[in-house]
Amino acid sequence: MFDMMGMMGKVKEMQARMKEVKDGLVHITADGESGAGLVTATANGAKQVVRINIDPSLLKETDQIILQDLIVAAVNKALQNAEEKAQAEFKKKTEGLLPNIPGMDLGNMFGM
User: Fold this and answer.
1) Quick check: 2 and 23 in contact, CB under 8 A?
2) Per-residue confidence of the chain (112 residues) as pLDDT tens digits?
3) Which pTM value belongs to this model?
4) Which pLDDT score, from 0 to 100, does residue 97 have?
5) Is 32 left (phi over 0), alpha (psi -120 to 50) or beta?
6) What separation in angstroms does the CA of 12 have from each of 70, 106, 110?
7) d(CA 9, CA 6)
8) Which of 38, 42, 73 is nearest to 56 (CA)?
9) Do the Cβ atoms of 33 and 40 come closer than 8 Å?
10) Closest of 4, 6, 14, 7 to residue 109, by C-alpha
11) What cellular component terms from Gene Ontology apply here (predicted)?
């Protein structure tokens, strides 16, 4: 016989584990560079840019910190907007396919 309550418990457990993993992604970082190291960027596992470094030879020293902060903010906003659009598209494409269970966001199970 099908154990609906058991399955729901497993789904909730899986959601909790996925959230735990997702929350831990901010502690994973990776670097990228361009222009033979003149510009470097650091992003975390949550797809957020956390640091931009621009070699001072590319600009006036007084502009460097402001420019770095503005680039980080703009890139993170673009990533956030892209994520929101992706979630909306996922919801639109899966409408009617996934059961509507109050309190459960099954879209998060697929990373959306």
Assistant:
1) no
2) 567 777 777 788 878 887 887 788 788 888 998 888 888 889 888 888 888 888 888 887 667 788 888 888 888 888 888 788 877 777 777 776 656 666 655 555 555 5
3) 0.56
4) 64
5) beta
6) 39, 10, 14
7) 5
8) 38
9) yes
10) 14
11) bacterial nucleoid; cytosol
Residue type, 79: L
What domains does the chain contain, in order, with CATH numbers?
Answer: 21-110 (3.30.1310)
- Each as own residue / partner, the long-range contacts of residues 103-106 (CB below 8 Å, 24 or more positions apart, any chain) are 104/11, 104/15
Q: Which two structure tokens, joined as six digits, stand for 71?
A: 């680039």
Tokens standing for residue 8: 């729901």
